[in-house]
Amino acid sequence: MFSNRRNKYFVTLLFCGAAELFGAFCFLFCKQEKVLLNAYNKDTVFKSDSISEKKDTIKKNSVQMDLHEVIKLHYESTVIDSHNDYLYQVFKRGAEFGTRDKFTQSGLQRFTEGGVDVQVFAIWIPSSEEKRANAFAKEQISRLKRIEAKYSGEFEIAYNSADIDRIIKSGKFCGMMGIEDGAAVGNDADNVNEFFKLGIRYIGLTWNRSNLLGTSAKDEPAHGKTAEPAGGLTKFGFEVVKRMDEIGMLIDVSHIGEGAFWDVVKTTKNPIIASHRCDNGEFPRRFYKRKRKVNAYAGN
Ligand SMILES: [Zn+2]
Prior knowledge:
Elements (H helix, E strand, L loop, with lengths): L9 E4 L4 H12 L4 E4 L4 H4 L5 H11 L1 E4 H10 L1 E7 L1 H8 L14 H6 L4 E7 L8 H18 L4 E3 L3 H9 L3 E8 L9 H9 L1 E5 L30 H13 L2 E3 L5 H10 L4 E2 L11 H4 L2 H9 L1
Parallel strand pairs: 1-4, 4-5, 5-7, 6-7, 7-8, 8-9, 9-10
Antiparallel strand pairs: 2-3
Helix pairs in contact: 9-10
Bound molecules: zinc ion.
Zinc ion (ZN) binds next to loops.
């Protein structure tokens, strides 16, 4: 789905607020002449079980770059932030896309000044809207489309990789949409198709609450207490995963429990994504540390 446009470098930031992170990065290193960048290589790093060996490998593969080179690399790359909760702030606090609101760290100016080319806007379902998750998700989609209409000269939503290339080339800021919490699917897998038609390109199966699709990392039964934790996808969850596979909707494993993760890996025939790290600090952070799972993830 994502493709490089400008040069050989391609940067995908898997954290919320790429622009802010980059700003913080520059702030932290602004007084240093050289910056260490990790030349991350999963084949060499994960070959070893020893953490110190892993660290040595990362150190060995690191390169020193002048801060100016780092900034140049950032701005010359196509930067895609795969998850940002900005849209919730539009709903909750009336954030205005063209304004530097004090209560958000995002907005059109910050995105573009921060060197973000593509922002995937997360359609997250707050607890207050859980009972009407499907309707709320559609309202959030409409909200982003209204922003697109209002800022049509500067912002456009992409639905495929050709759109991304075209929109960036035109000089506009590019948006995409993903759902965070499969509760939005309700109890009907046909809603996956409907969301795809509306422009959603990934669905995170759960947020911090287990739902009709499966268990979340936060509340998965026996999480962390047994070698093979209980929980996983429900029968409906399996149906949804298969439907997502059929139509090309990306499966986002952020926030899902360990049992659910393995059910997804065993079921899907397509690559999976983790659009951002788990907010509760458990899975998948824990899973990143386990070679067996990292390999399963890479193999998928
Ligand atoms: Zn999250």
